[in-house]
Design goal:
With 495 residues, the protein is an alpha/beta fold. The chain contains 20 helices and 21 strands. The longest helix is centred in the first third of the chain and has 22 residues.
Length: 495
């Protein structure tokens, strides 16, 4: 019965979503108009002349693009309990994250915006069931590796991690079959939590698992170690892995080895600031994400190249181009206005609008003017691993500007599960693949400005040790793929 209800509901949702898929520009214009009209009397609305905004061009003139630091004075007032600042009333939650120059970020989440998060996650799963016909997965156990759902409260507003907040809103369709238990989910220490999760889940009929790849990998590795068996033997019904926030490609080989078979994957694009997309087609191609235009989010875009050169020309959805790297700018029903979330995307389709996530604007490598982005290093490694037995567990890339001898270069720090027999040949091929993907890097190597990349092997589980040392082991925390300085890799060398 449960499966039948899910199928019927999925058909209903698909038909409903076609309205905004078929009329994207209309929905975006209506979204902007609705967001502005609701916020005219807020402090931000008064400061930025919302009562005079009657077009997108006027909106751009009145509201500059800002990152968290640019909105911080308003958010601080909200954290202190003031009302009607960025959005009418008070937010329902603050999603607490790290990563700014001033310490923790407090991202506002309203009653309306949390509903879009939950609806999008639900729709992603329902669409998968329809496309895959994998209806058996509905009736099994569903495992969500996430942060603690325990929340604190300050000035009448709950504070926690997004994944923990979302745990309070699991759709009824999936609530009964959810794992782990609430008590276990509240354990803060990640390694203790994983041990307890293993105790609760092994032996259960698990069909779906969701979580950040690196942490799901850690969970699987421990199970394989304990049970001396591949995951498909421990969980024979497991058929779908749902992930978001990072590319799955670098982990693919390792996962397939742990699984003992290929299973379906579903890519999503959630963040504390909003749920932006999910994979709506399932082919042999790299997953593309349907940009969600029904989530009370107005999207703008700045060409990454322009942004890095100090130009911030914003365009709306109707002006975007295929295969151009854009910085994502959003305005939302949580009161984030022309907000730079730091993620970069490329459009792979304009009908419907589909994207791939290419990285973070602050996570790029351009110590020598090469502008290498996460998408390029991930693709270069993936191409190098093709048709080989080499397995990489984790990696990051940094510049070596002042080597003890020879020319400057890129250093790749890799944690191998199965290392290459010939590390020199492997590094040559990796360099060749990166040069194919980035002409600026190719010019620098060809011109003798820098030498080809060098691979550094980390100690086993060195990345795990590093993440533990900085208090970011588990949850939604991810190892940056690359950086323009050596802060991370210099700490990695300690392990």
């Amino acid at each position: 019965m449960k499966t039948l209800i899910a199928i019927l509901f999925a058909h209903f949702i698909r038909k409903k979503n076609q309205n905004w898929i078929n009329n994207p520009i209309k929905y975006q214009k209506n979204t902007l108009s609705k967001l502005i009209s609701k916020s005219i009397k807020t402090e931000f609305g008064k400061d930025h002349g919302f009562d005079k905004i009657n077009s997108y061009e006027v909106f751009k003139q009145n509201v500059p693009a800002r990152d968290y630091e640019g909105l911080k004075k308003y958010i601080d007032k909200m954290v202190n309990g003031e009302k009607n600042i960025l959005w009418p009333g008070k937010p329902l939650y603050f999603a607490k994250t790290s990563g700014t120059t001033s310490g923790a970020k407090f991202i506002p989440i309203t009653q309306g915006s949390i509903k879009t998060h939950i609806r999008s996650a639900r729709d992603a799963l329902l669409n998968y069931f329809l496309k895959s016909k994998n209806y058996k997965a509905i009736s099994g156990k569903h495992m969500f590796l996430q942060g603690s759902p325990e929340l604190t409260k300050k000035n009448g507003v709950f504070i926690g991690r997004l994944s923990g907040i979302s745990a309070h809103y699991v759709p009824k369709l999936f609530l009964q079959n959810r794992m782990p238990s609430w008590k276990t989910n509240c354990i803060e220490d990640w390694e203790e939590k994983v041990e307890k999760i293993i105790q609760e889940t092994v032996g259960e009929k698990m069909t779906i698992i969701a979580g950040i790849p690196s942490w799901v990998q850690m969970y699987f590795e421990k199970i394989v170690q304990i049970r001396k068996a591949k995951i498909n033997k421990v969980f024979p019904e497991l058929s779908l892995y749902v992930y978001g926030g990072v590319s799955y490609e670098p982990y693919k080989t390792m996962f397939e080895r742990l699984f003992g078979k290929k299973i379906d994957t579903l890519a999503t694009f959630p963040a504390s600031e909003g749920f932006f997309g999910y994979q709506d087609e399932f082919t042999d191609k790299d997953p593309e994400l349907l940009l969600l235009l029904n989530n009370d989010i107005f999207y703008e875009f700045i060409k990454t190249e322009d942004f890095l050169n100090g130009k911030e020309k914003r365009v709306s959805l109707e002006s975007v181009e295929l295969d151009v790297n854009y910085l994502l700018i959003i305005s939302t029903s949580a009161g984030l206005w022309a907000y730079n979330i730091g993620d970069t995307v490329k459009f792979t389709s304009l009908n419907p609008y589909r994207i791939i996530v290419t990285g973070r604007i602050k996570q790029f490598l351009s110590a020598f003017g090469e502008h290498v982005i996460a998408e390029e290093v991930e693709k270069a490694l993936s191409q190098t691993l093709n048709n080989s037995d080499v397995v990489v567990k984790e990696f990051t890339v940094a510049p070596q500007i002042n080597p003890k001898e020879g020319l400057p270069h890129h250093e790749w720090y890799l944690d191998f599960e199965t290392p290459p027999e010939n590390i020199k040949a492997f590094s040559i091929e990796l360099d060749r693949q990166l040069r194919k993907l980035n002409i600026y890097y190719d010019d620098l190597v060809s011109g003798g400005i820098i030498k080809p990349l060098i691979i550094k092997r980390t100690k086993q589980d060195g990345f795990k040790s590093y993440m533990r040392s900085v208090g970011k082991l588990g949850g939604l925390n991810k190892v940056p793929r690359l950086s323009n300085d050596r802060t991370i890799v210099d700490q990695l060398t300690l392990y």
